[in-house]
Amino acid sequence: MAGRTLFDKIWDAHVVRELGDGWALLHIDRHLLHDLSGSASLADMAERGLAVHDPDLVFATPDHAVSTRPGRDGMTYVPGGRLWSALRQGAQRFGIRLFDLGESGQGIVHVVGPEQGIVLPGLTMVCGDSHTCTNGALGALVLGVGSSESTHALATQTLRLQRPRHMRIRCEGALAPGVTAKDLALHIIGLLGADAGVGHAVEYAGSTIEALEVEARLTLCNLTVELGARSGVIAPDERTFAYVQGRRFAPQGADFEAAVAAWRELHSDPDARFDREVQIDAGTVAPTVTWGTSPEHAIAIDARTPDPRQAAGQGADAIAQALDYMGLAAGAPIAGTPVDWVFIGSCTNSRLSDLRAAADIARGRRVAPQVRAWVVPGSEDVKRAAEAEGLHEVFAAAGFEWREPGCGMCVAANGEQVPPKARCVSTSNRNFVGRQGPQARTHLASPAMAVAAAVAGHLCDVRTLA
Ligand SMILES: CC(C)[C@H](C(=O)O)[C@@H](O)C(=O)O
Ligand code: SF4
Fold first, then answer.
1. What ligand 2 atom has the least distance to the C-alpha of 408?
2. Is residue 330 located within the same domain as residue 424?
3. Which residues form the Aconitase/3-isopropylmalate dehydratase large subunit alpha/beta/alpha domain (predicted)?
4. Which of 244, 269, 381, 464 is spaced 20 to 30 A from 235 at the CA atom?
């Protein structure tokens, strides 16, 4: 038998029935629900008189539509309150565990899954959210699903899926000081394009990936969907096992040891075949930011915006449009661009390690007077851990607002918007037109780069910050 990829190994272990033409019915080990798509799935189930097949494998938490204002409750953002109570009612009706506001386990669904040990190596997991790919960093087969797939999975604990093609992105070399997994991810998308992964499952491998901490791997995998791929995966290793050990829903004691023994088999065989292989020289990656309205509009901080006059055909129009929306000149240095807002948060960069990296730059500095800057921890547990270390005080002393856990300004589904034409440096994953509010302008960056921009008042290289 030919060698198998990591993805194949997890897939094969979950096939309930082969359906032909590459399709199979797969067992789904975990299902996560959030207030936007999850509340809708549960309402659909109720309306159709369906029962949840295995409520113990389903977990819910409000994140998108809840306010992150200090002292908030579920009704602080009134339009979102309806979704919050629908999620609560649905969870209660079907006997699903809900991590509610103020409780350990509440937070952005993709932060909570790994943090609580709900997502584990070798498992299959779905969630009605495109950034479910984040969880592949633990060596799990994870998929963002649509509403009918979500209902199917709730009702049957299975999903009918077509095996994707395989793509391996091999990253070699040590990241330079000041360069993070976020910069690497943006660099990769900038290089390959936002549709490079369509139809593929991505595996990240190589010495750079092996050297990344698990939380940094989560950041990298989070951006896989911005490459067009539904899932990204990293082979679990000693770092993964150490990360998982002791988490609330992870196996404990002898069960954990037995699980680790099985998890050690979860890697692509040396002779596994990939449909596409890409090599990335990670040692040359610089701190990277986006200039335009797609994550593929990524450039090194010391580079210039593109010039449509030097591009051909449709590409030129798209560049001109993006520059116009962003209020930027063609062929101009991106560094020095003045900034109005800074948002540190989202399922990309709101874990404890991200907040530590941000605090390291913020310590002893001040947010520029014209800038408004927020730090939104990814989960209740992240918030508590950060406060126990005094990070909230570092941020407050530097002039940042310290907020409650949730998606916050990432997609503005909770009314927290960047004002029209204001420019925001954001640690999130999407800079689409109107993403952070109508006419809002978003530059994606790492937490350290976002703090550097907040302090300088303009986009700048964190490595040269005064
Ligand atoms: C609202 C939700 C379904 C959506 C997603 O699928 O990703 C959101 O989380 C996003 O980041 O755009
Ligand atoms: S933080 Fe942003 S990207 Fe992540 S799930 Fe929430 S809205 Fe989507």
1. 1
2. yes
3. 8-457
4. 381
Q: What are the pLDDT digits (tens) for 68-86?
A: 999 999 999 999 999 999 9
- Tell me, yes or no, whether 251 and 113 share the same domain: yes
Residues 173 and 90 in one domain: yes
Query: Interface pTM (ipTM) of the complex?
Result: 0.98
Rounded to an integer, what distance in angstroms lies between the CA atom of residue 213 and that of residue 7? 21
| Protein residue whose Cα sits closest to atom 2 of ligand 2 | 410
Rounded Cα gap, residues 108 and 208, in angstroms: 27
Domain boundary (221, 253, 276) is at 276
The answer to whether the CB of 296 is under 6 A from ligand 1 is no
- pLDDT at position 165 is 98
Q: Say if residue 174 is in the same domain as residue 200.
A: yes
What residues make up the domain containing 458?
289-464
Cβ neighbours, 10 Å, residue 311: 15
Q: Which residue puts its alpha carbon closest to atom 4 of ligand 1?
A: 129
Kindly tell me the burial class for residue 385, based on how many C-beta atoms sit within 10 Å of its own C-beta (0-12, 13-18, 19 or more): middle
Can you tell me which residue has the tokens 């306010």?
A: 67
> Do 51 and 176 fall into the same domain?
yes
Identify the domain boundary among 245, 276, 307: 276
Q: How far apart are CA 85 and CA 409, in angstroms?
A: 21
Write the Ramachandran bin of 117: left for phi over 0, alpha for psi from -120 to 50, otherwise beta: left
Q: How far, in Å, from the CA of 346 to the mean position of ligand 2?
A: 6
